[in-house]
Structures are given as structure tokens and as C-alpha cells.
Amino acid sequence: MLSTTERTDMTENPSTHQHPHQRLIVIGAGFAGLGMGIQLKRRGEDDFVILERADDVGGTWRDNTYPGAACDVPSHLYSFSFRPNPDWSRMYPPGWEIQQYMRDCAEQEGLMPHLHLNTNMEDASWDEGRGIWRVRTNRGVFTADYLVTGTGHLADEHFPDIPGLDGFTGHRFHSARWDHGVDLAGQRIGVVGTGASAIQVIPELAKTASELVVFQRTPAYVIPRRERTFTDGERRLFRRDPQSMRDLRSELFWGGENNYAQRRAIPQFLDAAKAEALSHLASQVTDPELREKLTPRYEPGCKRVLISNAYYPALTAPVTTVETSALSRLDGGRAVAASGAEYELDAVVFATGFEATEPPFAEVVHGRGGLNLSEHWQQGMQAYDSISVAGFPNLFIINGPNTSLGHNSIVYIIEAQVEYILGALDHARAERFQVMEPTREAEDAYVERIQRNAAGTVWIDGGCKSWYVDQRSGKLTLIWPDFGYAFRDENARFSPEGYELTRAELVSAG
Amino acid sequence: MLTEDVFRSRTLTVDGTAVTYYDSQDTKGRDEMLVLVHGTSGSTRAHFGFLYPILAAKQRVVSVDWAQPEGLAGPLELDHLVRQVTAVVGHVRTGQKVVLLGYSLGAVVTAVVAARHPELVNRLILVSGWIKTDLQQILRNDVYRALRALPDDSALREYNTFCAFGGPFLAGKTLADMQPGMDAAQFTDFGDLQMDLNRRIDIRSEAEEIRVPTLITGGTHDQMVPFRHQKDLFGAIADSRLAEIPTGHAVVFERPSELSHHIQVFMDDPSRHPTGTAIPVPAP
Questions:
Q1: Does A268 contact B257 at a Cβ distance shorter than 8 Å?
Q2: What pTM was estimated for this model as a whole?
């Protein structure tokens, strides 16, 4: 992707190369980074770069290539509203199709010249004297007026600290770093975890494994996957009548929003959700002992409600054993469960999730006075309007604290945040502000209101331990505990209220 | 603790008739309260199973179940229901005026309350209401009557579902999806009295008297109260704005979340959409 001349420069002095100053640096080329870039391009703005540590765009969908990887949000909703795709093959898109969609976005929207691939942010520091961000990477130093992070919640895999991991004689890898060089057919395989990735990969592994052991700490609520392919005729209609595509998206969105009543724990809707999942379990698992093992003891939605028609049947397959305790250690070729049970395994797949509550990107971001974002977030991450942080001027975090939905598409939230940033940039330009930073009071009041609103929801009071809640403070730091529309109503339009804004002349004078 | 069940009923006697209402009580730190009034043959539980508890998460909400007047000899009149709603609003409010929301026949009732009692009402939200019954509605009402007279109510249940839900919504469902709702529909003498009242609605003069800021919403695919009625209300009420939702009459079942979006914006930021605005349909 890099031009030949640039490549020559880099070989000479790759890490100290000073790139031309930009208005914006965007970190990450997943839905957040691409969405930001597309909207800038469409406004005719060219003074930005997108830094991506990997060798391709796509984020989560580039990384997660495990067998069966697919999205559990419908395709027509899990895509940009301003770039609908009439060609989605199915209601729930396979991962590779989303990845292709994102490549098309980057290429067709003219983002390639702005993209710096294989470029890892090693440090980002606010230069108080000049009022700019300085981002050090393995491919040189970038500076800009604004820093926008779009690093996602599912970027850095979480590997549990299992004794004996290094000495394990078989194959082992995380579901997000699938080793396609390993042939697992006929092997004895352990899968650690029963979350969203696990329930997709387990049915695929059960097809060819000689033995499959599923290490389950907590069973998930699983509901039917209302899957179907779009016919040629439907896809032709989407092209001929784009409004029909928007109507479908709208129907899917509001259908998802209706489910928020379950997360709010309105008794009749919570009961209906539980009944739907438990009847799905009863219809697919007849063995009472196994059914008991798979019955959750917390409220649906406290952990993500999963959709699958193939998961339970895979657990009832003759090759499969459900171990209802955690993997506690590995010993040569043996896996030992917390229950004491032991299994001889040829491979272990860790479907153990991601570092979401303590995002690693924060470790390298430094604001005023060298303040480290990760240390600043010791008691859990928080941001004003779910996007900006006191002490970190001109920083906007897309898909950061209190932005995830348990019931609808994250792309909707990302679009709202991109709109907010564009509003902030416009305001700064029109009023000649150079530095914008939320006040600590505004940030605290915003977060306090969110925590108050979260009370009574299944995330806080649903009786489970989940990655939505920061275990250090007990605060709901990942989830936006309200309707998706409420996020857009409250957080899509930038308002200078809550910000301290400084004009350019004052920055240079100071 | 998980969200509490807010369906705690209270009773107020109005004109010798016991009227049930529900009160979520918790103000959520807001001065303003919202009072809901259901539609024909409905109740808080039947029509506001979603809206009442969801809106109660953001502000105090009261919801009125109107009742058949004791000793009613003649037909049910709009005044009977207007007096019940007015009495409950007067009883529950704490000095402040309330925001009043009515759905379907409840919208007709609340429009009249707002016209007659500006001292009680701060703002008005009319969901799928109408201003004057027209021939399309009379003919539908005739078919309802004819089916209601049959000993077997299965055709009535199907007809009711057919009329209440939007075509696009039904097209995406199976009969099995709809059956529980069809079976749950209640047909009572009091319901028949309300259906009879529906034939005689004409609140054109009251609508012209309404001065409070009003949000009007209605369904694109409504076959019981076709969308043109929303435009009539939009024209008749001085300080109104209009939101279209792509559902049938049963918006409270089809897209209660899209409805709660419009309601909450109007609660939080009444001037978001100025007088006379046709609010753009959200494009998620």
C-alpha cells in the first residue's frame, strides 16, 4: 500500500521519519476508523491519516477467521447506513463477507492514500506547547491537531493465565488468531469458553474432531438464529429500489430496539426472553443431565444472549464432552479442569474473549502533563459524552466507554460518534478554537447519570460476572445502558457545553 | 436489584365509578410527569405493556384504565371518559401541569381534556388519534359489528388482527407468531360501547382550541385510523408537530421503541422540532 519512495525513506530511518502534519490522526481501520475516514473524504477533507497496526483493514473481521465466524447482528444493520450493500448473501453475514465489505469501503471511498498499514501506535502524547498530538509508530512520527481512536472492544485477545500453557505439547491458539496451518480433523480438541466465538466454532469443530471437550464456567442463554439467504430477486430489488433496503434496515433496527425492554429487566419481557431461550434448549437437548448443565442461573442479557441453531446439537454429539468447570492447568498433553477431571488433548482453542474493560491502547496515550490514560482509568474507563476525556485535549475515542449495546448494532453507535466529531471539528473551525477538552465536572456528571440509569438493568443486577462491568469498581463501563436511539439523541450532536475551549493565539502565547 | 414491577394499581372513584390507574411514583429527578390513556377495548397492561415501564425509567408515569360508568343507561359518550381522565390527572398531579398522552380513542379523549383544561396540561401527545370519523371507519366498524354478532368469534379475531397491524409487519410474521395476541384479544360489552362511540367522534372545534405544544404521531400503514387523520390533527392543532411511524394502528406492539423515541425527545427537548414540523422519519 505504501509508495516506493516512502518505502525507501523508511528503510533509511523507519521509526524517526517525520510525516507531514495533519488535522487528524485516526487509529485503527475497522468500522470506526473507516467510518470516520469516509465521512471526512465525503466532505472533501484530505488532511488526515489512518494508522493501522495490521496488514489490512477490517478490524475484528480481519482477525477473526475461525471456522464458522459470523456476525450475530443482521448484515443490513451491521454496515454503514450511508453505504448500504444490496449484495449481502444472508441475514447474518459470515465474517469474510463483512471483511470484503470493509475492503470495498476503503478502496471505493478513496481511503487507500490515507491508510498506513503495518503501522503500530507505540506512543501518543499531547504536546502542550504546540497544542498538537504526536504519535510515535514503528514507521515514523505523525503529528496532528486531533487524535481519534477507533481501536474497538474486540481488538486484543484475552489469554487466561493458565499454568503449564507454555509446556503444552499440543497446538494452542486463540480463536481470534486462528492457526490455519493446523489440521484439526481427527484430533482431540479442547475449547475454553462458551461465549459468542465459542458457540460458533464448536459446531464446526464437532464435525471433524475425534473428541471435543468444552470447558464451560458459565452457560450462555442461546436463542434460535433466524437465518436465511437473500434470493437473487431480493438482491436485485435492493439494487433497483434502494428504499426497500433502507426499510429492511429500519425494521431490523427497531426490532432490535424493542428488545431493550429485556435488558431494562421489565419483568414481562425478561420472562419472555428467558422462556424463548429455555424452550430452545429444551427442544434441542433432551438429556436432562446435559440440559441442567446448560441452564443459566442468571438473567438473560447479563452476559451477551447468543444466537445459534447448531450449538446445542454440537454439544449433544457423541464426540463432545461438556466440562462444567474452568480449565485450571495444562500438563504436557493433558488438560486439567478445576473439577479435577483430566483430558488428553491434541489441541486447545482459547475462545476466551478480549481485553475490553482495560483497553491496551490506553497504556500508550498520554495527555496533559504526561498523564497516562490507562492510569487515569484505574477505576474503570469513562468519558464525557462517551467520547472525550478531561486531561486529554483534542482526543476523541470512538467505541470507547459506555458505547456497546447488548441489543443492537455497534455500527449505529459509531456513526453517531463520527457525526459528533465532525460537529466538534466544524465548531472549532468556525470559532477558531484550537484546543477543546471536557471539564472534569462535566465528565463526572455524565458518567454519574449513566451509572444511575444503569441501575436495575440486567448488566448491573442480572446476577452474573461479565466483561461489561469493570471488576475494579463494579461500574458498568462498556455498555450504554439505554436504547441505541437514546445514544444518538443525546450524543450525536456536538455541543460546546461541558468543554473548555481555547483559541489558537492563547495556546501559542502560553 | 432488578427493575421493579411498576404495575401497581390504585383506584379513584369518579362519578360513582371506580377507575383504576397505575403510578410509577419515582420522579427520576424530574418535575414533569406523564399521564397515559389507552385506546378502544384496551388497558394499561394491554396497550402500554412496553411504554409504561419503559417511560417510567425516565420520569414518573401514570396510566389510566377507563371504566364503564356505573348505571350507564344510554350510549357511552366521550364526556364520560373525559371526566374520568380529568379526575385522575387532577388527583395525581402535584401542583405541576402534566404531559398527557393518548392512544387511538385515548388520543381523542386527551385532546378534549387538553382543550377544556389548559390548567392541567403542559403538553399533549396524540398517538394514532383522529378528529372526525369518516366513512372508511364507519364501514370497518360495520364489519366489526357483524362479526361480533356471530356465535363463533374466530373470524372477528382474524379481522381484528388484519385491521390492527400494518401490512409490512404482518408480511414478516407467521400465524403462529400472531396467534397468542389473537387469542388474548378481549371482546366485552364495554368494548362494544367504545366501538359505538368511535362512530360518532367529531372533535374539530375542540382541536382548534388546543394551545399547548402537541406531538402527533401515526402509522403509515394504519387501516383503522388512516394516516390522513394525523394530517387533519396536524392542521387543526395550532402548536403541533407530526411524526410518521411506518407501522399499522398497533404501533404499540409493532415498533413501541420508535414511538418511545419520539415521546422521550418531546419530553426532554420539546422545542427540538418547531411548531409545524413534519419530523423526518429516523433513518437508522
A1: no
A2: 0.95
